Amino acid sequence: MNGWKGRIDLPEGPATRRWHQWVREPVAGVAPGVAMLGFASDEGVRRNGGRVGAAEGPAELRAMLSNLPLLDDTPLYDAGTVDVVDGDLEGAQQRYAEKLAALLDAGHLPVGLGGGHEIAFATYQGLALHLGKRRPRVAIVNIDAHFDLRRQDRGSSGTPFLQAIEHAAALGLPLDYCVYGISASANTRVLFDTADALGVHYVRDDELGLLDLPARVAELQAKLANVDVIYQTICLDALPHAMAPGVSAPSARGVPLEVVEPLLDAIAATGKLKVLDVAELSPPHDRDHVTARVAARLIHRVTHAAGRTART
Which DSSP letter does residue 84 get? Predict the structure, then answer.
């Protein structure tokens, strides 16, 4: 429970509480709620040739989440952090997957706190472990400037969704991959070709303006109507550089919050959101905690919206 501290407003009670006053450890038998699980990893970013620093992301996210207001009585839990030790990314991903699967088995909504986007393959593996022999149609919805469909000798922050797609195919698990925010200046032709060959649904950043938003939301809703389970992942480098400087690969354009938030709201409103993670927060490169605050806001928004949908 380290890292959870902040302001206390008086009189102390449900209407004045903040996250740091409400978060607990997810011991056996507790009521289902939102359960945060950190993944302190730079290894995938390092392997992918990016600037490191994302391993500090989980601690910074907890600090920024601490003071956010509690908008309802949904239980909040902190399940700790999985660290990458001696460059063993694959071992850490497996440990993370097992912890996440246990949270899902207990009925929680896990929220992954990254760490590089290599968290995504760990999250997917945890979801697959939880599903076991069940074969629902799963959608991975990624807010990202990059496809992360690289084919490399070792897994990295650039490979997780190709790994997930190939893993799901081997299991016979139906998997749709959708990416919003793709930058034409940040992905090679082979990545676009790979996405096309795999049937990936993607929307470029320059196709996600405010005037495009109603059509994009309707399009997303139509796609998600045909799936059973949603894994939502947010790469902070999809946001404009001024809003998210503290990432491994800052964006030259990005998608503004005015567009990102309605997309996230539409996903949460389906009632199918099973797991969420936020990746690529790199505190050493942040400015005035701007990126961390935006990331915390998105987690706050999505978890509250998902909880509200579950209660209705």
Answer: P
The DSSP output letter for 55 is G
Give the model's pLDDT for residue 80.
97
Beta-carbon neighbour count of residue 102 at 10 Å? 19
Provide the edge-to-edge strand list for the sheet that holds 109-114: 23-24, 76-83, 34-40, 109-114, 273-279, 229-235, 138-143, 175-182, 201-204
38 forms bridges with which residues in the sheet?
Answer: 81, 113
| Helices assigned H by DSSP within 153-256 | 160-171, 189-198, 213-224
Tell how far CA 209 is from the center of its chain: 22
- Average pLDDT, consecutive stretches of 10 residues, N- to C-terminus, the chain (312 residues): 90 94 96 98 95 97 97 96 97 98 98 97 98 98 98 96 98 98 97 98 97 97 98 98 95 96 98 98 97 98 88 68
In sequence order, which ranges of the chain are alpha helices (DSSP H)?
19-22, 43-47, 57-66, 89-105, 119-131, 160-171, 189-198, 213-224, 257-269, 290-311
Fill in the amino acid letter for 306: A
